[in-house]
Design brief:
By secondary structure, the chain is α/β, with parallel strands linked by helices. The protein is built from 15 helices and 14 strands.
């Protein structure tokens, strides 16, 4: 590498470090979904997205193990070449039934699904997007070749409707894209109002259920179910690597859109397909969720217990009362990192979110709970937060 490039790299790293936004990888293993082993020390995991604990469910592990033995460790190719396993189609049927769409298409990850889907739907269209949408949606909007991208204030259905009105006056196609349950603050988008606006303006509604699936709704079918509109979107992106405990994603949609995606979804056409063992594990997890509503109920009880304990101690915790995502805004980057460090010393692993993930000056601790946590685990997490995050009560 030339000296000029070396200087650039060093300068970039120095700037990141000075801003308190350096990221570092640290190997860790979760043996049970409720704890994690870091550098030989076991901590309570309050930073994960495996909300239902299905990543360690015996049925899920058995299904993955069987597929690994029968079909090997790799899918060998992209789906259009030689990697289209029968398990893809079984999983797609189950996922479509779960979210209430006619069809589904399984792809490699939620990031690939969002970027690829918006590239297909957004070209020469107007995209209306919540300002707090996930980075994968932001990047999809950038890559789409859209006629225009209009961002509306977070959760503001009125402003979103006005953006759709402007798009309708300008002519051409329009779509609105939003997360259902937002990944940082655990609040639910106004999906009913957004859906009505899209219907009235002839716009497509694209809903990312990454954190809603398995969490929101009485049976865990997602934020659309929670809003009384199960299946009520033109495209639903569901992630298999969070509450469902596996890896990958799917797009729930119409037969026509699925057919178009098979041909034009570049992030799937040019990617190696998910391995059979991953597909089998995800299929077992979806089936488990569909038949066992008690999973969602246990998750909600744990989330409610932690939120209640923190509220009783004077903390203000935004988000839905049932959401397993509990943010505590600290403010400064270094202050937030210090609080996360104290929590780790107390035996609890918590994520410290800093810019650019969140706006400047709003660095926060993102707590999360799982159905795998015991009542005692939740009490321990709450006690550690109350002890290690001083000065945030009533903030």
């Amino acid at each position: 590498m030339t000296g000029r490039w070396d200087e650039w790299l060093v300068g970039e790293l120095r700037g990141i470090d000075a801003a308190g936004t350096t990221r570092r990888l640290q190997p860790m293993v979760s043996p049970d979904g409720r704890t994690v082993v870091v550098s030989g020390r076991r901590l309570l995991l309050a930073a994960g997205n495996g909300y239902l604990g299905l990543g360690h469910d015996p049925e899920v592990l058995a299904a993955a193990r069987e597929a690994l033995e029968s079909s090997g460790a790799s899918s060998q190719a992209s789906r259009l070449v030689a990697g289209d396993h029968p398990l893809h189609h079984s999983l797609e049927q189950e996922c479509a039934e779960l979210v209430g769409t006619p069809c589904a298409l399984v792809v490699g990850s939620g990031y690939l699904a969002n970027v690829g889907l918006l590239r297909v739907l957004g070209r020469d269209a107007t995209i209306v997007s919540d300002e707090w949408n996930h980075a994968s949606i932001v990047d999809g909007c950038r890559a789409a070749g859209a006629r225009a991208v209009r961002r509306y204030r977070h959760g503001d259905a009125g402003e979103a409707n006005r953006a759709l009105e402007e798009a309708a006056r300008d002519g051409g196609r329009a779509l609105l894209v939003t997360e259902s349950l937002f990944s940082v603050d655990g609040d639910l988008a106004p999906l009913a109002a957004l859906g009505e606006s899209c219907t009235a303006r002839g716009a497509l509604l694209v809903v990312d259920e990454a954190h809603g699936l398995g969490v929101a709704g009485p049976t865990g079918r997602g934020g659309l179910e929670e809003a009384g509109r199960p299946g009520g979107a033109d495209a639903i992106v569901g992630t298999l690597g969070k509450a469902l405990g596996g890896y990958g994603a799917f797009v729930g949609c119409s037969p026509e859109l699925r057919a178009l995606l098979v041909t034009r979804l570049r992030t799937a056409v040019y990617s190696t397909a998910l391995p059979p063992a991953v597909l089998a594990g995800c299929l077992a997890a979806v089936r488990r969720l569909r038949r066992d509503a008690g999973l969602v109920e246990r998750l909600r009880l744990n989330a409610s217990a932690l939120r209640g304990a923190l509220a009783a101690a004077g903390f203000q915790v935004p988000g839905e009362p049932w959401s397993p995502i509990l943010p505590l805004v600290v403010g400064g980057n270094q202050e937030t990192l210090a609080a996360a460090g104290r929590l780790r010393e107390a035996g609890v692993l918590v994520a410290a979110l800093r810019p650019p993930t969140v706006p400047e000056g709003t660095a926060r601790l993102r707590l999360s709970v799982s159905a795998a946590h015991t009542a005692e685990d939740v009490e321990t997490i709450a006690a550690a937060v109350i002890r290690c995050v001083p000065g945030r009560r009533g903030a």
